[in-house]
From TrEMBL:
Residues of the DinB-like domain: 83-150
Protein name as catalogued: DinB family protein
Organism lineage: Bacteria, Pseudomonadati, Bacteroidota, Flavobacteriia, Flavobacteriales
Provenance organism: Flavobacterium magnum
Length: 172
């Protein structure tokens, strides 16, 4: 049963990540450089995909650094994580691809007692404290939510269509 659960989670989570990569890849370079909202959503998605796969999250160290800002952040930003510089599409895609492998390894390692591991941010009210399975599902939903935003921007602004993935590996 655990094998079936792992395969199902990976097939759907991998598909969500593939669609994120495809949305970023489909985006024309000029739009990516000029449309800050698209860029910040893509960056936010990449960072949090990696973060929610970091158990425990206390040791999280992203490949693409950011600064946390409380004041004077760009209006297009998502949350308070501001990239230290404007990363290229290729850098974001490589980061998401690395996180895709991390996700697959995390899911494949789930068995028995590993299902009891927890993603615990801290002891403050509002800090996340989720079982590993729940943080994986939360991460999948978060990734797909922001991927849908990217697809919407591409469709509304440029009339571009990015591919749908039924399962991990369906699209290049």
């Amino acid at each position: 049963m655990e094998k079936v659960i792992r395969e199902a989670i990976w097939n759907q989570f991998g598909a969500a990540i593939d669609m994120l990569i495809n949305a970023i890849s489909t985006c024309p370079d000029a739009y990516f450089a000029d449309r800050k909202r698209f860029y910040y959503i893509a960056y936010h998605s990449a960072i949090f995909l990696d973060y929610y796969l970091s158990v425990p999250p206390a040791g999280f160290s992203p490949l693409l650094p950011f600064t946390q800002k409380e004041a004077s952040q760009p209006v297009e930003a998502v949350g308070d994580l501001i990239p230290d510089r404007h990363y290229t599409k290729d850098e974001l895609i490589a980061y998401v691809a690395r996180s895709r492998e991390k996700c697959k390894e995390t899911i494949e390692s789930l068995s028995g007692e590993k299902f009891h591991d927890r993603f615990t941010e801290g002891d403050d009210p509002g800090d996340m404290d989720y079982p590993i399975l729940e943080i994986l599902l939360y991460n999948l939903r978060h990734t797909q939510h922001h991927t849908a935003q990217l697809h919407l921007l591409l469709r509304q602004d440029l009339d571009l269509h990015a591919e749908w993935s039924f399962r991990a590996g369906d699209i290049a």
